[in-house]
Specification:
single chain; alpha+beta; 4-stranded antiparallel sheet; two-stranded antiparallel ribbon; 25 helices; 8 strands; 7% strand; elongated
Amino acid sequence: MGRDVLGVRVGVLVLVLPVILAGIGMELTTRQGWNHPPDSRYYLPMMSRDMGHSWGSAVHTERSISPSWNLSPWYFADNDPTWQQVRLRFLYPVLSIPFIWMWGLSGGSMAIPVIGTVLFLWAVARVLQRLYGPAVAVIVVGGFSLTVPVNVFTWAGTDTFAMGLAAVIVLNLPIDRRIGKANLAWLGAACIFIALTRQVGVLAPAMAGAGWLWVLVRERRWRNRWLGSLIVTAATTLVMTAVSMTVVNANTAGVIGRGQTTSWGIFRQFVHYLKIVTEQATTYMWHTDRMLYALLIAAGISVLARFGSDATAVFVGAVASTYLITAGVGFSDHMRYEMLMFPAAAVAAGGLVSLAIGAYLPKPVTEAQTEEADEALPAARRCRFSLGVVSGLARTAPGRFLGLHLPRQDRWKPQVLLNAAVLVVVVGVSLAGSWTSTIAAPASPSFDAAQGSADYAVKPLAKPPADQTLHILFDQATGLAHDNINLQGALDWAHVMRYQPLAPDEPGWSTRAKDGTALVNPNSMGQDTNMAEAYGRGLSLNSTVKSDTVKILTRQVSPYGEDVTFTVQDKSGTLHHGAATLLYPIWSSRDSSTVTSLVFDAS
């Protein structure tokens, strides 16, 4: 099986693809509801919106597919920070539309994630085959095809598609070779598309920059073969960052600092979360995914054994960029965020495998040698594997304008035109569909908090007593203050909340209004236990509120909830007055209302 298919030996594909496709097939047919994880409650409505459905219809359709995940039109509100970040990830929803036409929303939403996984394995196999030969490609790619994240996270989300695009970036980097203009075109396109798939920070310029720095030190030449890839990746990343900051209304200040105001404090906080995510990631792999652990350890050993190599530089750049992301969010989610560095890790691990068994392997054939051998074949033999379309077009004026007469690595115009056309279509569809937000959902009054003036406002299923809801809220807040992290219940994970922070470590302290209250978004806390505990202390008056002493004084009722004043005692017997906004339950008639504003001692 010496023939290549898209640059990868048929034998490599035959040995690897059945394994991963069998694993993905098992996942898709057995995990049922988890084909659509919590994040899919954003992506599926985006797909429906891109296909012309209203917000109300889009939310209702998603709820019918994933009834376990709470969802409301206010999750897509103009003032919700999570939605403001997610709405920029419109590539996956738009590309899913043709598959939804064929298989429906539930099945069609799975196609792009599967394609992303296959793209990752193909691109990595091609790089490994070029650098070390087919045997190393089978070993390393086969190993990654057995890892938990590659299989489990092939679900209705952007994880595997972003990983596949990261692999395309690695594929086109000048790792132990010189690249042409076509590679630079693919690098630019992949950087743009990955920014429209997931927030990846400086992944591409970090890898290219590390490669450039390694060669600069080794060869003492700043205009080396990595300079072009560094310029392209840095420029496209900078442009996409500027565009996202311009068009997306999201305040991400303090993501890394987390309340720290000094440079030294931010640095210590960052190092603290570096330690946390490292411990979480290594513990997870040791107990759950020994194959992934072994592959990443092999990549680390390869760094020490082949420190001066291009593969080491790319891996170091990928690790640094990934750590910046994971330390920024503050936790490692079963290696989901680390999947972006898997392509670079695979190339580094392949270096160690090659060192270990290289003496028993034939020397790898380079792409240049493959092209030379192909050109040496008789024309009749080459035609069995090619329709001759490109060579025919190359003799025409349009073909020469596109550069089809040039060597393959210098044909950059077709790539630019193709990717530009895809980008225009994707942006056009998104602007007319999922890019729009629902109206802002303030903390109060209840009618506005429920987006009551919009036709997509959800009708309540029940009207539970306000004192009962506040009782549940104070119990939940006390639990929050004692490491019982639950931001659903009488609270909502997405809806903006007004409350009074009591101490500098509590969310919203630095953005308090003149009356001492602050607006916070619980979904911005992520899995930050310390911040959630501080939030619970603020809601429960430092865990002193006696939840069974709530008494409602006044009520202003709307079709969607009520605004009440109340009294409640603390453990010392002190009576506190307060005001609260409650939204009636919309997901289950057995739920409590949702509190969106809680202000003590209100006049």
